[in-house]
Design brief:
With 599 residues, the protein is an alpha/beta fold. It contains 22 helices and 14 strands. It folds into three domains: 86 residues, Arginyl tRNA synthetase N-terminal domain (Gyrase A, domain 2, 2-Layer Sandwich); 219 residues, 3-Layer(aba) Sandwich (Rossmann fold), CATH 3.40.50; 147 residues, Isoleucyl-tRNA Synthetase, Domain 1 (Orthogonal Bundle). The strands form four sheets. Strands 7-6-5-11-12 form a five-stranded parallel beta sheet, with helices on both faces. Helix 1 packs across helix 3, helix 4 packs across helix 19 and helix 13 crosses helix 14. The longest helix is centred in the middle third of the chain and has 25 residues. It binds one RNA strand of 77 nucleotides through helix 2, helix 15, helix 16, strand 14 and helix 18.
RNA sequence: GAUUCCGUAGCUCAGCUGGAUAGAGCAACUGCCUUCUAAGCAGUAGGUCACGCGUUCGAAUCGCGUCGGGAUCACCA
């Protein structure tokens, strides 16, 4: 039985019989026992001393005594100030161990077990330039949160809403027609997204020159920006696109296909996947009907110039534009449309999560509010998974200062560092060429992914490109290493002892303190997954696997496992190692990180 | 200006539904490889939890204020 559950019942009984205090078991909380004191779990008794009419020490002692007598699991206690430290019997921990070891995926629920379906949108790139470090955070977060929600029993639909249309795409397209000379990914050997990005930059360069010339000719900056031939060019191109002009559409399709091929490579390397793709070119007209409905319901209003707005001043927000005077959509229009479309398509959707940076906090606040005002009951199930920007030591990444960290470059660099370090340490000497390459990739990506995911999504994070990401300490490779050592140990045991499963039986008195500590950490795995999901924070899992790795490393280094003479102890320790290894592997997989069998 | 998020060791981060002496890693310094993988382990040093006031038996955690930083407030996306 679950320890906290059991104890809170008993404590509630204790409080009732000792002091006639009526406290609901659910309201009783516990905390970890401080390392410096004896005990496995601690009850803070301060909340009950007033009603008990005793000193904190006496209150603690009385409860402790009562528990010790009434609860076999509690074998001892001590009271320090107002803290009642409870010592739980080794047999409880060993029973728990036997249970956890008997499960292949202890703590992990199967998708669908909760009966809830959740859609997670993430990635959502623009098709005019390659992915950068910020996108990496988005992709890793979205994927990992999806995995964590699945591990909590939810059915998850991972989606990607690709921003494949609009004025920004036209920039790349126009620049390519002007200066591309028919260059293709094949002819240039460039990854498609990078090639298209190159022309996006090219556009900007020429456009700035045009503006400069016009300004020199006496125009104001604003006039120059509006009248520059390139600006007129892309505006015409956008109109052509919307009119379905075949040549423009053809060019658009061709260049987008290059970008998708490029993105696919990056996605595949990162290990992120999607169940359902949405393309803005297919959804951008969707919201207009909702705007009509909103007008009819008088939720929205139309200005004299024909533009449509919503007044949110009652909600302490502004007036927000929903449709331009010329009848074209803005982002809000589209987002309303896609949301409504998703509610229609997935009628059983319990939640809709948008993984988007915190610069759009206001946008989503407004979006959900409008959905609510439009009468969609699903509005309350929408959640903006808002994450902080990835910044450089000197501040934000700026494309015009060339400080944007390219995703593919960064990944390649991480893999390269992993390779250099592995070669230096001679770790892959017995690996085949392809095994070694696979290992470099696993390690490099683990370092990158863990570095990003261990940070609370809500917080901005600093990344210093000059200092490569660590491979020691609180890092992905450290956890991989712990796993690899366990795997090596188990392999050796299977060979030398000719056993495949590791018996869990052990005399209570043989359990070492550090083994109990390990079991206590393992015990927390299921609740860790729950709170990670509840907070939409993979960092909770990341920090947990690190804690487990660290504790196991100490164990590995200080306790003989295979060299122990007593076979019963050997088997138990192998079983404990196996269980630890499984949790490390499963935990890492929820972060989208692979663990190598050896390294 | 309004709204909102943030400020913990030199650096990067945990801890925040109030609880014991605030934890890791990196960087620095000491030890430990004829012993299950040293990408490791053990240890030393490093803190006015931005600051002030308040609530409380108890505040890094909650409230108010000040200072400092970011983001948003577009017929942009």
């Amino acid at each position: 039985m679950h320890l906290e559950h059991l104890l809170s019942q008993k404590i509630s009984e204790s409080l009732s019989s000792l002091f006639s205090i009526d406290i609901k078991p659910e309201t009783i909380g516990f905390q970890k026992t401080n390392k410096d004191f004896q005990g496995d779990i601690t009850l803070v008794v301060f909340p009950y001393v007033k009603a008990a009419g005793k000193s904190p020490e006496d209150t603690g002692r009385l409860i402790g005594n009562h528990l010790k007598e009434s609860t076999p699991e509690v074998i001892d206690y001590n009271v320090v100030k107002g803290f009642l430290n409870l010592v739980i019997s080794n047999s409880y921990w060993l029973d728990f161990f036997a249970f956890a070891l008997s499960k292949n995926d202890f703590g992990i629920q199967l998708p669908g077990a909760s009966g809830r379906t959740i859609m997670v949108e993430y990635s959502s790139p623009n098709t005019n330039k390659p992915l950068h470090l910020g996108h990496i955070r988005n992709n890793l977060l979205g994927y990992s949160v999806s995995r964590i929600l699945e591990a909590n029993g939810n059915t998850v639909i991972k989606t990607n809403l690709v921003n494949d249309r609009g004025i920004h795409i036209c920039k790349s397209m126009l620049a390519w027609t002007r200066w591309g000379n028919g260059e293709t990914p094949q002819s240039s050997g460039m990854k498609g997204d990078h090639l298209v990005g190159k022309y996006y930059v090219e556009f900007d360069k020429h456009y700035k020159e045009e503006v400069k010339v016009l300004e020199a000719g006496g125009k104001t900056k604003e006039e120059a920006e509006k009248q520059a031939p390139l600006m007129l060019g892309i505006q015409k191109m956008l109109l052509d696109w919307e009119a379905g002009e075949p040549e423009t559409i053809g060019l658009w399709k061709m260049m987008n296909s290059w970008v998708y091929a490029g993105f696919d490579i990056t996605y595949q390397t990162l290990g992120v996947k999607f169940d359902r793709m949405y393309y803005e070119s297919e959804t951008y007209l969707l919201g207009k009907k909702i705007v009509e409905e909103g007008l009819a319901k008088k939720v929205f209003y139309r200005k004299e110039d024909g533009s449509v707005w919503i007044d949110l001043t009652q909600d302490k927000l502004d007036h927000k534009l929903l449709l331009r005077a010329d009848g074209t959509s803005v982002y809000m229009t589209q987002d309303l449309g896609t949301a409504a479309e998703r509610f229609r398509e997935y009628s059983s959707l319990n939640q809709l999560i948008y993984t988007v940076g915190n610069e759009q906090d206001y946008h989503f606040k407004v979006l959900f509010l409008i959905l609510d005002k439009m009468g969609y009951p699903q509005a309350k199930n929408c959640y903006h998974l808002s994450y902080g920007m990835v910044e450089l030591p000197e501040g934000k990444m700026k494309s015009r200062e060339g400080t944007v960290v390219d995703a593919d470059d960064l990944i390649a660099e991480m893999i390269g560092t992993a390779k250099a370090m592995t070669l230096e340490l001679g770790k892959a000497d017995t690996f085949s060429e392809s095994e070694a390459e696979e290992l470099y990739k696993q390690i490099g990506l683990a370092a990158l992914k863990y570095f990003i995911l261990k940070v609370d999504p809500k917080k901005k994070m600093v990344f210093d490109p000059k200092e490569s990401i660590d491979f020691n300490g609180n890092t992905g490779p450290f956890i991989q290493y712990t796993y690899a050592r366990i795997n090596s140990l188990l392999g050796k045991a299977r060979k030398e002892l000719a056993v495949d499963s590791f018996v869990s039986s052990l005399a209570d008195s043989s359990l070492l303190p550090i083994e109990k500590e390990l079991l206590k950490i393992i015990y927390r795995f299921p609740e860790t997954l729950k709170s990670s999901a509840a907070e939409y924070n993979p960092g909770v899992v990341a920090n947990y696997v690190y804690e487990l790795s660290k504790e196991y490393s100490t164990y590995y280094q200080t306790v003989n496992i295979l060299k122990e003479e007593n076979t019963e102890l050997v088997l138990f320790r192998l079983g404990l190692s196996q269980l630890t290894g499984r949790i490390l592997k499963n935990g890492m997989s929820l972060l989208g990180i692979d663990v190598p069998e050896r390294m």
